Amino acid sequence: MKNGVTQTLYTYWDELRGQRPAPNRSEIDPGQIRGLLGDTFILESEPSKDVRYRLAGTRLCSAHCRELKGRNFLRGWGDKDREALESLIAAVREDAAAAVLGIAGHTEQRQQLHMEMLLLPLHVPGEGRVRILGSCTPMDRPYWLGLHPLMRQSITSLRLVWPDERPMFLNGSTKVSNPILPRFKAEDMPVSTPALPRGAERRVGHLTVYAGGKA
User: What's the CATH code of the domain at 76?
Assistant: First the structure.
């Protein structure tokens, strides 16, 4: 997890859940994460693979130049990325894993926006684990952001963090200079490769999954 928003949201969620796999949806207090709300969202996920935005922050909607509430989360991804997302969401929903993704957003003008996305499980008593708390934050803010809508997205990297794992940044091994918008370097963006790299856990579709401690 390289982005300050990602780290802050994960820390808040992790403290809420304590020794449980996931906190209850009702425990989320927007006032405690007020500065992150523009980049956060909540998904409603059903076993039928229908995944929709239940809520979406203003900065996230602005990047897409449209209201995302009620829209299909899986729309705008390529076939392979959509299959990978379905597998990740199943891991979040059924196994209480946290997912961290590197995302590239693309406009019709062929502009590209690098973002980091976080997906976290929320328990809804009586319904099972069918809500997902997430964030999606640009690693940089180009001049055209909010003017040219993101029409499609692609995955550049992904990692799963299982309930009993602890990300490295919680141990103080990763520092972010700006808690809301850290500096971004292109070489910092991990990418998947055809061969299984050292330290990789397994593949999800065409993408490589690393152990949570590497995030």
Answer: 3.30.450.20
- For the chain, the domain total comes to 1
CA atoms within 13 A on the CB side of 25: 17
pLDDT tens, position by position, 86-107 = 999 999 988 999 999 999 999 9
In this prediction the pTM is 0.78
For residue 59 the two structure tokens come to 């900065």
- Long-range Cβ contacts of 110-117 (<8 Å, 24+ apart): 111/142, 111/144, 111/148, 113/63, 113/138, 113/140, 113/142, 113/145, 113/150, 114/138, 114/139, 114/140, 114/156, 114/184, 114/186, 114/189, 115/139, 116/1, 116/2, 116/3, 116/5, 116/6
Rounded average pLDDT over 167-195: 45
Residue 199 in 3-state DSSP? coil
Band of pLDDT at residue 186, cut at 50, 70 and 90: very low
Range of the domain at 8: 4-214
